[in-house]
Automatic annotation (TrEMBL), chain B:
It is found in: Cell membrane. It is a multi-pass membrane protein. It comes from Pseudonocardia halophobica. GO terms for biological process: cysteine transport. Pfam families: ABC_membrane, ABC_tran. SMART domains: AAA. SUPFAM superfamilies: ABC transporter transmembrane region (SSF90123), P-loop containing nucleoside triphosphate hydrolases (SSF52540). GO terms for cellular component: plasma membrane. Gene3D superfamilies: ABC transporter type 1, transmembrane domain (1.20.1560.10), P-loop containing nucleotide triphosphate hydrolases (3.40.50.300). Keywords: ATP-binding, Membrane, Nucleotide-binding, Transmembrane, Transmembrane helix. This is ATP-binding cassette, subfamily C, CydD. Its main location: membrane. PROSITE patterns: ABC_TM1F, ABC_TRANSPORTER_1, ABC_TRANSPORTER_2.
Amino acid sequence: MLGLARPRGGRFALGVLLGAAATAAGVGLLSLAAWLIATAATHPAVTALSVAVVLTRALGVTRGVARYLERLVTHDAALRTLADARDRVYARLAATEPVRRFRSGDLVSRLVSDTDATQDLLVRGLTPPLAALLVGGGVVALSTALLTEGGLLLAAGLVLAGVAVPLLAARAGRGPGRRVAAARAELSTALVDALQGAPDLVAYGAMDRAVARVEAADADLTRTARRDARLLGLGAGATALLAGLTLWGSLLLGVAAVSAGRLGPIPLAVLVLTALAAFEIVAPLPAAAARLGAVRASGERLFGVLDTPPQVRPASDEPVPAGPADLRIRDLTARYDGPLVLDGLDLDVPAGAHVAVVGPSGAGKSTLAAILFRFQEAEGGAVRLGDADLLHRSPDAVRAAVSGVPQDPHVFDSTVRENLRLARPAATDDELRAVLTRVRLDLDLDEPVGIRGSRLSGGMRQRLALARALLTDPALLVLDEPTAHLDPGTRDAVLDDLLDAAAGRATLLITHDLAGVERMEHVYVVREGTVAEHGTPAELLAADGWLARAGRAPLSRATAGR
Amino acid sequence: MVDPAKSVSPMKPLDPRLLRTASAVRTHLLVATACGAALTGLILLQAWLVSRVVARATGGAGLESTVGSASSASAELALVIAAVAAVALARAGLAYGAEAAALRSAASAKSQLRMRLVRHVTGGVPRDRDAGELVTLATRGLDALDDYFARYLPQLVLAVMVPVAVLVVIAGADWVSAVVVAVTVPLIPLFMALVGMHTQARTNRQWALLNRLGGHFLDVVEGLPTLALFRRAKAEAALVRKVTDQHREATMGTLKVAFLSAFVLEVLATLAVALVAVEVGFRLLYGRLDLETALLVLILAPEAYLPLREVGARFHASMEGIAAAQQVFTVLDDRAGIVPAGTGAAPTGDIRLHGVTVRYPGRDRDALHDLDLTLPAGRATLVTGPSGAGKSTLLGLLLRFVEPTSGRITVNADDLADADPDRWRRAVAWVPQDPHLFDDTLAGNIRLGEPDAPVAAVRRAATLAELDDVVAGLPAGFATRLGERGARLSAGQRQRVALARAFLRAERAETPPLVLLDEPTAHLDPDNAAAVRRAVGRLVEGRTAVIVTHDPAWADELPADAGLVRLEAPALVSGGRE
C-alpha cells in the first residue's frame, strides 16, 4: 500500500517536515523558556536574553502555522494518492471484470472502502511516526549533549512509550476485539431476528422470547466489554507511567550531576523541562498503531482483488457482423471451480425469434447469460452468431452484437438521459424519447434517478435497463431474470412490455418462474447444465415433462389463459 | 461513517437526554469528575515538586552533599524527588483506572440505550422500518459512544477543572502571568466557536457536493458489469480520475477552512505560553520573582491549554457516537404504532368489515376505502386485485397490525377492537409473502407460535406442509440450525416452513383458527410452487381462511364453497363467485 504513495513522496516528505517542525516548536518552546528563566535567574545583562526572547515568541507562532500547513499538505497528498489508488483499482476491475464478485453488493462496497482506507493510512499512520522519529531524535541529541545519561534515559522512555506501548496495546486489544466481535455477532443475529422478523414474531406471540434473546446477547456483550476494559486501560496507564518515571529519572540524574559538578544549573532546568515536554512527541502514536491492523487487512483484501486474473482469455477484436443472425450453441460446457455448471448444452435462437430458457434455480441458466455477455469463459463447445464464433472474439467485439438486461442491472446516480446515453453516447434526445416510449416509460430525460435508481420503482428500473439495451441495437437480446425482484402485480405488465419492445429481434429470455413463457416461440428446459426438453410452449405443456408439471402452477396458467 | 457536517450544529457537548436515559452515564460522570479532580491535583503537585527540585538543586544542594548545614536541605531534596516518583505512579494508576472505568461505564450505558431502543421498537404493532439500519445503529452505531465516554467526557471535565485550578495557583504565584492566562484561556473557546460557526455554514454548503463526488466511485464500481456490457468500462476510467480530482479540490477547499479552528487554538495556546515565559523571565531578571515560582508558572502555563486542545481534538472523534445517541432518541420519541388496545377474550364466528377505511399516517390516499366484506366462518375467501388495492392492508387488519381509521370489524357481533390483540392472534395462522426464519433449529422455527408443542405435532405439521423431503435433506433433520434468516433453505423451502408453522398453530388453537395467506407462491420456481399449492389446499380446508393474491387462477385450487373477492384501488368493486 505504501507503494501507492511513492509517486507523491515529495508532498509526504514536506508533510513530515512540517509536522516535525510543529512538534519541535512545541517542545523547543519549553526547552528555550527553561533556558531563558534559568539564565534570567543569574541576573545577566538584558541583551544576553534578547535573542532567546525573540526566538521564544517566534516558536509560539511557528507551531500553529506549521501544524496548519502540515495538515493541509498531508491531506492533499493523501487525497492525491487516493485518486491514484482509485484509478488503479478501477482500471484493474475494468480489465479483469470479476463479475461474479458483483453478485454481492457487500463485497463491492467493502472494496470501495478498502480503497479509501489508503487515505487513512497515509494521514494517520505514516506521517505522525516519521515526524515523531525526527523530533524525538533531535530532542534526544539535545539532552545527550547536556548530560549523556539524561539523554539515554529520555531515549529509552520515548522508544518505550512511542513504539513498545502502542504496539503492545494494539496487540493486547486484539484479544478483546475478537471476543467483543464474537459477542456482537451473536447480538446482531438476535437483533436481526427480532427487528426483521417482527411481523412473524408478533403474529405468533413470540416477540417476548425474541427480546429475551436480545437481552441475553446484550448482557453477554456488556459483560465481555466490561471485563476487557481492564486490559484496554493498560496502554493509557503505561504511557503516563513512562512519562512520569522519565521525568523522575531526569531529576535524579540531573541533580546528581549538578552536585558532582558535571552539570550547571541552567542545563539542569533545560534537561528537566525538555523531558517534561518531550512526551508530546509520541502522543499520536497509539492511535496510529491501533489502526495498523485494520489498514493491513484492507490492503490484503484490496490486493487480493487486484491480483485476480482476467475472467476471459484474450481474443480477436475482429467485429461480429451486425444485423439479424441465427444464434447456434453446440455442446457448450462451463464450470467455475467445481463440477460442470453447463454440460453439453445445445440451443438455437433463429434470427428474430423469441426463445425462453427455463428451469429450477442452479441449473446453469445464469452461466449461459454470462457466457453470451462474455463475462465468463466457456470450457468447450461453440457459440456462433451467424458466422462469427463468439467464444473466440474479444468481449467488446461480442458486446457490440449481444446486449440485454443482466441480473440486477445497475442504474447510475444521474439523470435518465445519462443512463441511456451510456449505451449510445451519440444518441439525440429524440432517439432517447423514442426508446423510452417503446418500453412504455414516461420519464423526463432530465429526471434524476437517485442512488442505484432509488427514485424509480423496480419495474421502471427494468424498463430503463431494457431501453438502454435496445439503444445498442444488438443482433441478440439477452434478458436474464428481468422480473426477479418485481411484485407479482407488476411482473406480467413489465414482461409484456419488454417482449413487445423486443418484437422482431432475436431474444433469449432466461427465467426461473414461468411468467411470459407462453408468449415464446420456443422453450428450452435446462436442468443440471443440459437441455432436458424443448419445444413450443404448447408441445411442452401437452407432454408429460417438467414444464407440464410446473405449468400447473396457477401463475403460468393465468398468463397462458389471456 | 456519520457525516460530520450534518451532525455538528445541533450537538451539545453533554446531551441532557443521555443523562436522563442512561443511569450509567450519571455514574460515569461522577467517576470522571472525581478522577479529573484527582488528576488536577496531581498535575499541580508535580509542577510544584519539579520546580522545587530544579530551583533547590541549582541553589547548591545536591543529593550527595554532605556539608553539615546542607544535609537537611539535601534530605529534603531527596524526599521531593521521591515524591515525583510517587506522583508518577499515582498519575499512571489514575490514567489506567479512569480509562478502564470509562470503558466499563461506556459498555453499561450502551447496553441501557440499546435495550431501551429494542424494547421501544419491538413494542406495539410491527411497523415498516428499516430493520438493517436499526441493527447497525444498535451495534456499530452505539459502539462509537466508546470514544465519547472514554476519551471525550473525561477530557471535558479536565478542560473545565485544570485551567481554573492552574489559574488560581499562578495567580497566587505571579499575578501578571495570571492575567495573560486569564485573558487567553476564555478566548480559545470563543474563537473556536466563531470559526466553527463560519466553517459550519461553508461546510454545509459544500457537503452535498462532497457527498456526490465521494459517492461517484462506489456508483461506478457497483455499475462496472453494466458499464462493461455497454463497452463503456474503459472510457469511464478517465471520468473516475476527473471526479476524484474534483473531489480532492472540493475537500481541500473545505479543509482549509475547517482546520482554521485548530489553527487558532494552537496559535493562541502556544503564543500565550511564550508570552508568559518572556514576562516571567524579565521579572526574574529584575529580581521581582524567585526561580522556583518562575519555574512553577512556566511548567503550569501549558497545562492550562492542554486539556482545551485535547477536548477540541477529541470532539470530532466522539461526534459519531453523539450522532448515534441522537438517532436513538429520535427513534424513542416516535411513539406511533403504540396504541391502546382491548383486553377482552378472542371472539369466533363470521368476520364482518363494516365500512372500513384505512389511511396510513402521512399518506394522501386511503389504503382501503369504505370496505364492506364478510368472511364466513369455516370457509375460504380468495382476495385478488392489483398492487396497491389494499390486499396487504386487509391482512394487516385481520392480524391487528393495523386498526381501521374509520368503520369497524365485528366477529360474530362482537367488536374486534375490544379483543386483546395477543389473545386474538393466538388463533391466527399467518403465512406471509416473505416469511422470516430465525437463526434456530428447523423444529424451533416451526414451533415459533407453540413452543411447547410435542415432537409428534411438529412432525405432523411438517408432513402437512410438504416439508418431509426438505427435512430428509438436512444433516440433522429437525435439529438442523437454519442460519441467519434461514439462509440454509431456498425461498420455496422457507415458504413451506412457514406453512408448517401455520399448520401447527391451526391444529393446536383452542378456538377455530383464522388462516391468512399472502401471495403464497410469488417468486417460487414451479416445483416449489406446486408443493406449496398442495399444502395450502390442505391448510384452508374447512377453516376460515383469507388468501390474498394478484392471481385469480388460485380460485381453482380452493374448495368449491370458497368466496371470491376482487379489490380495486381503493374500494371493493365486485364480489361473489364468477
